[in-house]
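Q: My labmate handed me this sequence with no annotations at all. I'd like to see what the chain might look like in three dimensions before we decide whether it's worth expressing. Could you predict it?
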Amino acid sequence: MDKRSLRTLEYDKIINKLVDKAISPAGKAMCEELTPMHNLEGIEQSLLETGQALEFSMKAGHIPLGGIKDIAHSLKRALIGGVLSIEELFNIGEFIYVCKKVINYSKSIERRGADDLQRSLPPHLINEKFEQLALVADLDRNIGRCIQTQTEMADEASAALSAIRRNIKVSNGRINDALNAVIQSTTYRNMLQDAVITMRGGRFCVPIKQEYKASFPGVVHDASGSGATLFMEPMSVVALNNKIKELQAEEKEEIQRILSVLSQEVALDAPILSLNAEVLTYLDFIFAKAALALDMNASQPDFNDHGIINIKKGRHPLLNVEKIVPTDIWLGDDFSALLITGPNTGGKTVALKTLGLFVLMGMSGLFVPAAHGTQLSIFDNVFADIGDEQSIEQSLSTFSAHMTNIVRILGECTYQSLVLFDELGAGTDPTEGAALAISIIRNLLAKGTKAAITTHYAELKLFALSTENVENGAVEFDLATLSPTYRLLIGVPGKSNAFAIASRLGLSQDVITEAKQILSQDDIRFEDIITDLEISRKAVRVEEERAESLRAEAQRLTMDLENQKTRIANNRDKILNDARAEAKILVARAKEEADGIIKEMRKIKQDSGSTRAAEEQRAKLRQKTEELQPQQTATSAPNLKKIHRPLVFGDHVYIVPLKQSATVVSVTNRHAQVVFGSMEMKVKHADLMLEEISVSKKPEKTAPYVSSAIKSSKSLVVSNSISLRGMLVEEALEELDKYLDDAYLANAGNVEIIHGKGTGALREAVGRYLKKHPHVKSYRLGEFGEGDSGITIAELK
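A: Here is what I predict for the chain of 797 residues:
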């Protein structure tokens, strides 16, 4: 890739942002080395890895690499037999701890439901990286036991080290006692400069006045700067100090032995640790790309190798996100060269840089700050000539510097290249510059090179209008406010609006009028055509936005209708199931009573043989059968008639779609409010038929049976929990209301309401609803093991 163009398009600043997102030194180094790839499969795999890391970050947070150490040098030393220091072993222990955290992070993703995402991607992506991480339990345990801090080894590292340090502590105590005895002695009190104990040359000493050197029994180890004080080791502690020196030498030797043993263990596990280091470095690199995408609100682009670019609502990643205007840029499908015109500071150069930088970022496996559906292409090189290229050192003017770069680009570009020229042909005579620019564009078209060029020349606008495979583009300018909108319009040439801008800045109107008179009539007509095109384009855009708004509204209404149909279908199934359950209970009750009567008849016959009593029992049996028969008849085949009169309160009707009898409670022009059982709903007149009620139906007698049957059936079918996850608040509360009624009838006691954690909106709505519900005695959130805050447990009255 052309290094000069990378710098011109500020690719290095994107890499710096990426480096800041990495955590480990090795990960940062890997980010610094990132360059655009030229292999379609490699680019797509890199983008998929970035996408999966982004999904993981959103589900479980960023990968926990904090505290990771670079252990590569230590592993090399261990492999050649070197003895690692306490600090190096401590760093290896920290590295192993990070490995354990990352493994647990991977497992937590599976528990959060991201395992479906993992299975949906090829096995050679990020999942395989997690699976390559291995633990070194023995080494981890031994380092944790032996190494206490970066500079200190634990007493428990070995029994010998523990005994040595215990003896040193005892010896230090004896020395302290002996020195305190010297300090407190009346014999030596006048000889002491200060009543303190100090250390000189690793030996415990006391400060003695110089004139008592011969009188104080001890060894001189140091003197003060003035010579007035001598630091002497009393003879009473010389032997103890010697003992401590011996113990310290033993301690050092034992520490060195332990370090040697641990270093050998590190060497044995070095292959595993090296692989873990490579995996963590790569994961750090991938998650850094994901963090950058999240920071830029970027999306994954689709890639092709046909030179087609289609950027949707692209935002330059280095500009202020609150001020930048998203823009659409496309190139390579209907045309190969795009000529962008318009006023200065209107956003032409930003559009050019956005186009080039997006291609470089995408080819590097980075997401781009644009809408989903953005399409980019692979190019063998991206060339850019943008900005002031004046070179004082080489004595080149702006035009010469630009032309030198353009000559180089024309010599190196191919049909697979992308070329970006800013103000092509500027810096010299306008007529010659325009002619030169047209010739350069024709040269690029002949090669098949994709190009985007900014210009002010009217000749180039006409060239684009009359040349195949070339398209005009313009940065929009608001004539009302005389300011740019920074929106790129493709398909229409732009105006420089020099007269309007000059007028706004205070140039005399006489001067502007004279300037307009100097223009030829052809120039004026051309500019007027451009103005008309801009006005038409704005009108079309307004209509497109309105059409898009209407389409979105229609889609929303369609979804609402489908949801309503689903709810009606669910209610219908529930009603039918309840009716079947009630019918079964009624039949079972009647059968039970019939069996009892038959038994009683047999008993009467055996006892007395009374024919009259038997006849009475048979009559009672026939009556029970007749009571049941009208209910079954009404349910299965009611006597129906079409509605030829206005419905009134109390009419018995039949709901055709639900196959259910009901009673009218209120009527409007098109709907009737009906009730059946404990349900009430609004139904269209077209879905109703009048139902003739026969006198044999006896609803007053069946009502008690129905009520008890409902309660009995509820006790058989009502679950002790309901799941509201995925529902809207209104829909969820409707389902909860039905469920609480059923649970109350079934004497359910405690019930579980599963609403999930999410944003907490559904949980709060459920809490407010339960607080006011007449059937609820108390409620609380679930505890650990019950579902935490994702479940509410209610106690019914």
